[in-house]
Design the sequence.
């Protein structure tokens, strides 16, 4: 089989014993190195009764062809062999120049270290010895002779690929150990990780027991209060305003902050980094200071980006002797890089080093030029104004394996989280690893709330390990790497001082303002929400309110007597309504097409009224998506909170003069109707309807146009801070509610039952409950609208439109003879009928 490996790269599997070749991970690595799924295996041994035992069937079971020969004949098979297992008795081992050539030309050699030493060939640095087993006397003698030692336990292997290497572990935690001398001449050691998927430089491996040299590491806790935030005006001398003017249409910063380093290998997260960079193959600058510039962490962080073909450079500044000049750093940061990726690890160490060498300022400059900033754990928290960190963990060091080897479990668990300052690109506390506990046994979420209670001035964002917070300018969204993990907002309650937490939805396609995200756990302020059930019997039908408004104008508005009379006497045949069963209907093409058709414009001007969803931007983004994609101009009218309500003149202009289409959001219909009545928006909606403006919406945005509707407004999580409520209540509490019938605006004289084919979180089917409700009050007919359908009303006529080709609407009326409810689906093929006829 032809060898495809670089001729200058030896491939060697140094074994703790030949028993290691029974270990699945070792066999897998041998086959991987061979570049063949079923390599040819040559087993070289001294005689049939060789003292060094090895069972070749472990490779035969993998469909490999295995041949055996003695040491004098192996060269006859060298062109055939992909892998050579070399196990002659010690006295039969010569220095084989041909064997050395073979391993430099793509053949994988498996042997114990003593055989490798006899073969020669400069497999490892000359001052380094590889030994099998753990003979402490032999190790001490070698170290005292100024040798660095790699000791391989019996079931482990040390895989050498040119000048790089990695450990493959075996059963029982078998691994390799590095022994060397510290500056005082004392012998120090550390086990090698067995989790690597790629080799790292052998010279770096031999430094594993050695600590980092930065002086601040001697007393890191003394630097906890250091301020690392970069002031906004610190870079004025760089004339950035002029430089950034070229990118005026872009929004900065662009940040992808992951809960842990490994999340940067998850496709959804990688895709978001690529999207923000604006290129399929961005140039990535890796900054591994937090992980002390260790290559194993570089391999983990950059793996996915290397696989797709990105050009990647690394900047090592953890140690003084590797720091480039300022000009070199500036060029790669602010001119070359399209993505800057920071490793996880010790954030406090990284921030101190960056401040020492001026890298913090270059990161700020790069962010203002549109470079994407990303990372996991420490590489996420560093971008925030502060973060919750385990930087004081005793093994959060360069030589963590040595520290773990030296300390007891109690000593390793004896540490506390702390809050430190960071670069300040996002004004919040970052809590990475939010869903995990530290080695001190304390959960991140639990401890973060403790720290926040001590200093409640800044809100916090917790990032689950498999999630990322994506920040684009002043907006953000959560992205899940596994479809479950998310981010969480933690803020103090003004009244109690207790922390309130809410997970962020992971189905957003667009970011929303960070300020709004940070309010997610906070309830809406409308006083009626404290006892919403008390308002169930409120009459919201507009006609009665208009009669009252003639003598007593609402909110001292400028509706004069003539205008109100015009509204009352207007020809109702102009009314145009598209009422969808749920919010998704406003994104289904047949329903969208009908809204556009009724507007009489190719690109209607759409006014979005999101009161029912408490003016949340995520709902706005979802429900207006189809119209934004078309290029429609869209405005939003926010009246859920008192401080966002425009003047009546401003509302009148946009509702009755500007809009071609008014879209009501889904959500809490009772809350919306109460707010509209309070601010006078109900009258303006009536006026708009009589001027031919198309009224549309799904769920609450459908039912609000009818004389009454079947609603879940009393559902405990039908609130502004629904994620917080869902997080706090049990399943039983969330299911403890009933549907109710409420009055609505009265533009259509029927009861609307949205979500007609769905079941609520209380376990009740909408259709069945609506029929039972009508038995108690059979005077008004009802129209049930399935989730993916819409009832279209034009003047006195109506018909059903299906968004998916199946869903439709239903008419429910009482039987005069029996009093039972009769339900009939509307045909999707029939022409519009008089609404009165439909209801009969």
Sequence:
């Amino acid at each position: 089989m032809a060898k495809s490996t670089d001729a200058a790269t030896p491939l060697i599997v140094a074994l703790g014993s030949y028993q290691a070749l029974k270990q699945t991970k070792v066999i897998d690595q041998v086959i991987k190195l061979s570049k063949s799924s079923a390599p040819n295996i040559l087993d070289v041994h001294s005689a049939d009764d060789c003292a060094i035992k090895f069972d070749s069937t472990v490779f035969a079971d993998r469909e490999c062809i295995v041949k055996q020969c003695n040491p004098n004949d192996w060269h006859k098979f060298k062109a055939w062999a992909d892998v050579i297992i070399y196990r002659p008795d010690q006295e039969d081992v010569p220095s084989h120049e041909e064997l050395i050539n073979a391993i430099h030309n793509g053949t994988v050699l498996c042997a114990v270290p003593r055989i490798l030493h006899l073969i020669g060939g400069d497999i490892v640095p000359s001052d380094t010895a590889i030994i099998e087993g753990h003979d402490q006397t032999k190790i001490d003698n070698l170290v005292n002779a100024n040798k660095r030692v790699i000791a391989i336990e019996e079931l482990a292997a040390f895989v050498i690929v040119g000048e790089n290497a990695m450990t493959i572990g075996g059963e029982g935690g078998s691994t390799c150990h590095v022994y060397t001398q510290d500056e005082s001449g004392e012998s120090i050691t550390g086990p090698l990780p067995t989790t690597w998927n790629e080799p790292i430089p052998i010279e770096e491996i031999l430094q594993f027991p050695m600590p980092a040299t930065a002086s601040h590491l001697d007393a890191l806790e003394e630097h906890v209060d250091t301020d690392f935030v970069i002031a906004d005006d610190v870079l004025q001398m760089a004339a950035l305003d002029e430089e950034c003017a070229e990118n005026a249409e872009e929004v900065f910063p662009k940040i992808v902050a992951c809960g842990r380093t490994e999340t940067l290998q998850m496709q959804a997260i990688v895709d978001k980094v690529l999207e923000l960079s604006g290129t399929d193959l961005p140039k990535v600058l890796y900054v591994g200071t937090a992980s002390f510039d260790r290559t194993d962490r570089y391999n983990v962080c950059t793996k996915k980006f290397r696989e797709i073909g990105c050009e990647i450079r690394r900047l090592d500044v953890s140690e003084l002797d590797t720091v480039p000049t300022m000009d070199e750093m500036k060029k790669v940061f602010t001119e070359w890089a399209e993505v800057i990726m920071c490793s996880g690890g010790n954030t406090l160490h990284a921030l101190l080093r960056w401040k020492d060498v001026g890298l913090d300022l270059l990161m700020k400059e790069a962010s203002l030029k549109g470079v994407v900033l990303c990372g996991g754990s420490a590489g996420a928290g560093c971008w925030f104004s502060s973060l919750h960190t385990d930087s004081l963990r005793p093994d959060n060091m360069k030589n963590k394996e040595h520290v773990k080897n030296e300390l007891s479990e109690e000593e390793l668990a004896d540490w506390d989280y702390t809050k430190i300052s960071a670069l300040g690109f996002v004004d919040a506390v970052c809590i990475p690893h939010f869903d995990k506990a530290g080695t001190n046994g304390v959960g991140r979420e639990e401890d973060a709330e403790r720290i926040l209670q001590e200093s409640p001035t800044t809100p916090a964002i917790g990032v689950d390990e498999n999630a990322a917070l994506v920040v684009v300018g002043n907006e953000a969204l959560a992205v899940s790497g596994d479809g479950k993990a998310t981010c969480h907002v933690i803020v103090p309650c003004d009244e109690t001082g207790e922390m309130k937490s809410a997970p962020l939805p992971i189905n957003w396609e667009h970011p929303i303002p960070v300020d709004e995200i940070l309010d997610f756990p906070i309830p809406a302020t409308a006083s009626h929400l404290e006892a919403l059930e008390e308002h169930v019997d409120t009459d919201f039908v507009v006609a009665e309110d208009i009669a009252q408004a003639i003598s007593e104008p609402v909110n001292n508005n400028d509706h004069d007597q003539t205008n109100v009379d015009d509204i009352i006497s207007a020809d109702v045949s102009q009314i145009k309504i598209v009422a969808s069963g749920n919010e998704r209907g406003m994104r289904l093409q047949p329903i969208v097409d009908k809204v556009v058709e009724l507007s009489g414009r190719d690109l209607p001007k759409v006014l979005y009224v999101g009161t029912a969803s408490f003016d949340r931007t995520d709902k706005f983004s979802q429900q207006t998506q189809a119209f934004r994609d078309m290029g429609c101009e869209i405005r939003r009218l926010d009246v859920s909170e008192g401080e966002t309500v425009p003047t009546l003149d401003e509302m009148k202009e946009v509702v009755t003069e500007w809009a071609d289409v008014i879209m009501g959001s889904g959500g809490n219909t009772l809350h919306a109707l109460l707010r509209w009545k309070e601010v006078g928006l109900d009258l303006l909606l009536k006026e708009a309807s009589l001027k031919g403006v198309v009224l549309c919406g799904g769920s609450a945005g459908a039912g609000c146009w009818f004389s009454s509707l079947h609603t879940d407004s009393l559902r405990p999580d039908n609130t502004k801070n629904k994620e917080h409520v869902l997080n706090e209540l049990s399943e039983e509490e969330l299911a403890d509610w009933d549907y109710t019938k409420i009055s609505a605006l009265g533009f259509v004289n029927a009861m609307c039952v949205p979500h007609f084919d769905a079941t609520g979180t209380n376990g009740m089917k909408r259709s069945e409950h609506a029929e039972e409700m009508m038995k108690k009050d059979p005077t008004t007919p009802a129209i049930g609208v399935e989730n993916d359908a819409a009832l279209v009303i034009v003047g006195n006529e109506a018909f059903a439109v299906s968004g998916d080709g199946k869903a439709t609407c239903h008419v429910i009326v009482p039987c005069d003879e029996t009093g039972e409810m009769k339900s009939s689906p509307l045909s999707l093929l029939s022409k519009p009928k008089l609404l009165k006829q439909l209801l009969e």
